[in-house]
Automatic annotation (TrEMBL):
Coiled coil: none annotated. One of its GO terms (molecular function) is cysteine-type peptidase activity. Belongs to the peptidase C1 family. Residues 114-318 form the Peptidase C1A papain C-terminal domain. Keywords: Disulfide bond, Hydrolase, Protease, Signal, Zymogen. It comes from Tetrahymena thermophila (strain SB210). Residues 1-20 form the signal peptide. Residues 41-93 form the Cathepsin propeptide inhibitor domain. One of its GO terms (biological process) is proteolysis. This is Papain family cysteine protease. PANTHER family: CYSTEINE PROTEASE FAMILY C1-RELATED (PTHR12411). Gene3D superfamilies: Cysteine proteinases.
Length: 319
């Protein structure tokens, strides 16, 4: 056990904090807890409304935060910064948010440069950014986002439509999904085709697993005729996005650090479901489900090519 003396100086610089002396096991002896780290930690807590009742737990989380700051310092891409996930270790982040249940199939072929920009967001065909919370339901948000946009593009809804992710979390387990422990967009599409999907107002999101509430599945109800799996090439994905937004699987292992810019710092081990919503300035535009305070107002720009494996497992609903 190592003794860490955290000097939180009184005054406006450190926002009136007092001296905190905590005995605990350090996350790492290589990352010092400086006054700069303490100040950034306080700013982080204020920005993201983080509260800790246990001082020992707060010190631990501050050390995790300090380690994440070191990752940002070593970044050379200009796309890393402080996000709401900075009090989580990489392992904790993955266990909560990177739960997509997809086999890492063959690598898609990058066979064409991106051209013909299209932005379904500015076209008014994409619904507002949502927040999955601490539930591994990215697959459900990718699914609803794709169906919402398909309905809007088809003239069957406006961009205020808000479909129920919770219905998918609670009710599609027999189709291979596992609620907050992960799932897959294609499985969710199959469920919707067979059962229809209601709205958020009828079946509100709780961010946790629950028993399927059949009484909440009532009109208005939305369905789909089927779905199309996009061929594993970037040219096929480019053709698909010209028609409508597309549900995609990505490697988001380092997205916890993303704050803006064109991102390419990733592998292709698919672990997260999101929505491809356009091609802008020759790069892919992607809608995430971690709230509007993350990334670029809830979006991320991915470098052209099969960045983060986004063309490896793409699909979209058909009317």
């Amino acid at each position: 056990m190592n003794k860490l003396i955290l000097l939180a100086l009184a005054g406006t610089v450190l926002l009136g904090a007092t001296l905190l002396l905590v005995n605990h096991k350090r996350v790492s002896d290589d990352v010092p807890i400086t006054e700069e780290v303490i100040l950034k930690w306080k700013q982080f807590k204020q920005t993201y409304n983080k509260k800790f009742s246990d001082p020992d737990q707060e010190v631990y989380r501050m050390e995790v935060f300090a380690q994440n700051l070191e990752v940002v310092k070593q970044d050379t891409t200009g796309t890393f910064g402080v996000t709401q996930f900075f009090d989580l270790t990489a392992q904790e982040f993955a266990s909560i948010y990177l739960t997509l249940q997809v086999e890492n199939a063959e690598e898609a072929v990058h066979d064409a440069e991106l051209n013909g920009d299209i932005n379904w967001v500015t076209a008014g065909k994409v619904t507002a950014v949502k927040n999955q919370g601490q539930c591994g339901s990215c697959w459900a948000f990718s699914t609803t986002g794709a169906l919402e946009s398909a309905l809007i593009v088809a003239g069957q809804a406006t961009n205020t439509i808000n479909l129920s992710e919770q219905q998918l979390v609670d009710c599609s387990t027999s189709y291979g999904n596992q609620g907050c422990n992960g799932g897959l967009m294609d499985n969710a599409f199959k469920y919707i085709k067979a059962n229809q999907l209601t709205t958020e107002s009828n079946y509100p999101y709780t961010g946790k697993d629950g028993k399927c509430n059949s009484a909440a599945i009532k009109a208005p109800l939305y369905s789909l005729k089927g779905f199309t799996d996009v061929a594993k090439t970037t040219s096929a994905l480019q053709a698909a996005i010209q028609k409508q937004p597309v549900a995609i699987a990505v490697d988001a292992s380092k997205w916890s650090y993303y704050t803006g810019g064109v991102f390419s710092n990733c592998a292709t081990q698919l672990n997260h479901g999101v929505l491809l919503v356009g091609i802008v300035n020759g790069n892919w535009l992607v809608k995430n489900s971690w709230g509007a305070s993350w990334g670029e107002n809830g979006y991320i720009t991915l470098k052209a090519g099969n960045t983060c494996g986004l063309a490896n497992a793409a699909s979209y609903p058909t009317e």
